[in-house]
Design a protein that fits this description.
Helix content: 40-55%
Shape: elongated
Number of domains: 3
Largest sheet: 5 strands, antiparallel
Radius of gyration: 33 Å
């Protein structure tokens, strides 16, 4: 006996008004004792093997998808080429262990910001899903964006849905070979440019371009260029909806993050059923029919091949293609738009209008996610903009804890580890405090230290204290470094240490 997950949510007539955000239900699926698979398993395997040919569609949401493709790819392809103070504006230099984000330089010690960023992303995901389901998947997910790009190329070369189906069913010919070769050539070029841009975030892209033209990339650069290019070509060109349906974990746990008030692509079964074909001259209300003419265009345009009329399913990526297709059919039939629309399951079940449904979006979980997200974002932004640009660690010289020197002084040796996170050199003035008459100077007798831009410096220093009146043992002291920043602000860092007085 095995089990098979049903659709995560049922909003169709079969649900009889059941909660649209109910948790996935399970039922036993019998397997033939002879070893053959059950009809349900056979159907699932057939769905995996079936190639989907989405039909092109125009409309409001199709335009938004195009806009999002342009916006996301303008950022992705263009950001590495921006310059900031004679360097790449955004560069994650793993070799030097520095992350450059415009005017900010982050070091390995700033990994806490990465942890906070991950937490912010998690709460953002919770909030966005609670409000609008998988809307991110339909408009901004890299898998969706590159699939849209590759499908646009495919339609321009091979034609729309029926033309592509006929071409794939035809035996190989010169025309078919030419079309397929042209399509894959453009796909490979897009994939290679995408892979090149990806590694351009981790190595200076201008130098990378010259090295690529000279075929002098390093082994890891070649690996990531080819790997990311192959992943783009394979995912967007071949796997497409399979990534969204079978590989993406977001699809699986979406059902526990939405509820009856979440706005998702929804079929209004109260208005659409019973469905069926009819002439525009027929009064379908008198004939006892719903508004759905059963044209199946909503299925033909769906990039994952589902029928939204069966209820919201985890495979739905919320792209709105079925909304555009259905609205066009409603216009031709002179019916009101919105048979398929972005709304909540409660709005359909209880007959709420859009304003009433939107008011229910601001429920406790959404407000809680919003509050936590704002607090974390403001806190991280404040921490980043107020963080000190100078860091110092005081390291005692374990080889010589303390010694007497001429002049009646006790001397301890330390090493000061400085980190300058600005992109200008800093001149530091050193001071010590905590004991009477304490002085500090570098090994060459200076009380100032120069630390280069975005650099570390390890400086040996000598701390001396008059021996008169000092008790043997360990005494607390403070070491202070002061720097005047180019913008006029003063950076000051103080670290505590101990001073040893021998017997």
């Amino acid at each position: 006996m095995s089990v098979e997950p049903l659709k995560d949510q049922q909003t169709g007539p079969a649900a009889n008004g059941a909660d649209a955000a109910a948790a996935p239900s399970w039922r036993p699926v019998s397997v033939r004792r002879s070893g053959g698979a059950s009809p349900q398993v056979e159907k699932a395997l057939a769905d995996v093997r079936r190639k989907i040919y989405p039909r092109a569609v125009s409309g409001l949401y199709a335009r938004w998808r195009v806009i999002m493709v342009f916006v996301t790819q303008l950022i992705f392809y263009g950001l590495p080429w921006l310059q900031w103070d004679d360097r790449q504006a955004v560069l994650f230099d793993l070799g030097a262990r520095k992350f450059y984000l415009f005017g900010m330089v982050l070091w390995p010690q700033d990994v806490v910001y990465l942890a906070v960023l991950l937490v912010i992303s998690a709460f953002g995901l919770f909030l966005f899903t609670a409000v609008a389901g998988r809307l991110f998947c339909g408009y901004a997910c890299p898998q969706t964006v590159y699939t849209e790009i590759f499908m646009w190329v495919e339609r321009k070369i091979e034609g729309d849905r029926l033309a592509r189906i006929r071409l794939d069913e035809q035996p190989w010919s010169w025309r078919k070979l030419r079309l397929k070769a042209a399509k894959h050539s453009i796909w490979v070029l897009i994939a290679l440019w995408t892979g090149f841009t990806f590694i351009g975030y981790f190595a200076p892209i201008r130098t990378l371009g010259a090295d690529l033209m000279a075929f002098s990339l390093g082994p890891w650069q070649w690996f990531w260029l080819l790997f990311y290019s192959f992943a783009t070509w394979g995912n967007a060109g071949f796997m497409r909806e399979s990534v969204c349906k079978y590989m993406c974990p977001y699809a699986r746990f979406q059902s526990v993050m939405v509820d009856h008030d979440t706005f998702v692509v929804t079929y209004d079964y109260e208005r659409g059923e019973p469905r069926g074909g009819r002439s525009r001259r027929v009064d379908h209300k008198e004939a006892g029919m719903g508004d759905c003419v059963d044209c199946t265009l909503c299925v033909q345009v769906c990039p994952t091949g589902i029928d939204i009329r069966d209820g919201l399913q985890y495979m739905c990526i919320g792209c709105g293609a079925c909304v555009d297709a259905c609205d066009q059919v409603m216009d031709k039939m002179n019916y009101p738009r919105g048979l398929i629309r972005y709304t909540s399951g409660r709005a359909v079940a209880e007959g709420l209008d859009q304003k009433q449904a939107k008011r229910r979006l601001f429920r406790p979980r959404v407000l809680a996610y919003t509050g936590l997200l704002l607090l974390l974002t403001i806190g991280m932004a404040w921490s980043l903009f107020t963080r000190t640009t100078l860091r110092m660690d005081v390291i005692r010289d374990r080889g010589a804890l303390g010694r007497e020197v001429p002049g009646g002084l006790i001397e301890n040796v330390y090493r000061l580890q400085f980190m300058n996170t600005t992109e200008q050199p800093l001149t530091l003035s050193l001071r010590a405090d905590g004991l009477p008459g304490v002085t500090i100077e570098t090994a060459n007798g200076q009380q100032e230290v120069v630390v280069g831009s975005s650099a570390n410096a390890l400086v040996p220093v000598l701390v001396r204290v008059p021996a008169e009146g000092l008790e043997p043992g360990m005494h607390d002291i403070k070491v202070e470094a002061i720097a005047a920043n180019p913008d006029g602000r003063e950076s000051r860092v103080v670290e505590e240490s101990s001073f040893f007085v021998p017997r």
